[in-house]
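Run log // design_07
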């Protein structure tokens, strides 16, 4: 077993720069697909999943600029948005399944590869899909892909997760932001990255409330604007 042996007794001083959190960055960056206007993120960590997500967002039709020295990421609409997330990118990033939510919310349709090409039961993707169905989405899973549509838009609903899932909670928060009506989420995850996502979306015009009893209430709005 590895150990760290630390001898105290000496005064410490100085400054350190703390990198941004990958777990917080991924869902926040993915939520930018809900925006029509350019959005800029700072203190973005330079890790593999971030670079994979950048490639995915480009495939979905957005223009992306990442200043690695300043750790600033800029995302803007380029041409026509796309709604297909291929296996070639999704196979290396489990969090990629989160793009299903903003694509459905914004465009009413999406075709997204299962993360890592896994079967639907291998990981809790079913929690994402079951909750999206309650918001009115029509979903079909076949040959490793999730085909989803919401021709009439997503509608607020009461959702209670059978088990606590950070990813599924993030997914439904993102989906419910532009849904019509109110979405109440019970047994939700309330990890720091969830709180960061909520704070970011609220600053951008969303109406989301939460409490320590694992309840989140999302009141749908018509649009979001970047801060």
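design_07 sequence
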């Amino acid at each position: 077993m590895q150990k760290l042996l630390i001898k105290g007794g000496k005064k410490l001083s100085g400054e350190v720069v703390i990198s941004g959190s990958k777990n917080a960055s991924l869902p926040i960056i993915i939520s930018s697909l809900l925006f029509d206007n350019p959005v800029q993120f700072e203190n973005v960590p330079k890790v593999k999943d971030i670079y994979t997500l950048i490639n995915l967002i480009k495939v979905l039709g957005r223009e992306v600029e990442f200043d690695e020295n300043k750790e600033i990421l800029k995302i803007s609409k380029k041409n026509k948005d796309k709604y297909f997330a291929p296996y070639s990118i999704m196979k290396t990033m489990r969090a990629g399944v989160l793009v299903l939510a903003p694509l459905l919310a914004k465009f009413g349709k999406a075709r997204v590869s299962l993360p890592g090409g896994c079967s639907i039961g291998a990981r809790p993707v079913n929690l994402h899909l079951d909750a999206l169905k309650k918001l009115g989405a029509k979903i079909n899973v076949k040959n490793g892909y999730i085909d989803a549509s919401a021709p009439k838009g997503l509608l607020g609903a009461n959702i209670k997760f059978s088990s606590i899932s950070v990813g599924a909670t993030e997914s439904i928060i993102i989906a419910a932001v532009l849904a019509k009506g109110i979405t109440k989420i019970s047994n939700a995850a309330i990890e720091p990255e969830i709180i960061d996502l909520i704070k970011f979306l609220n600053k951008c015009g969303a109406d989301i409330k939460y409490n320590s009893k694992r309840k989140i209430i999302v009141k749908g709005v018509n649009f979001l604007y970047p801060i």
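Confidence is low (pLDDT under 50) at residues 117-122.
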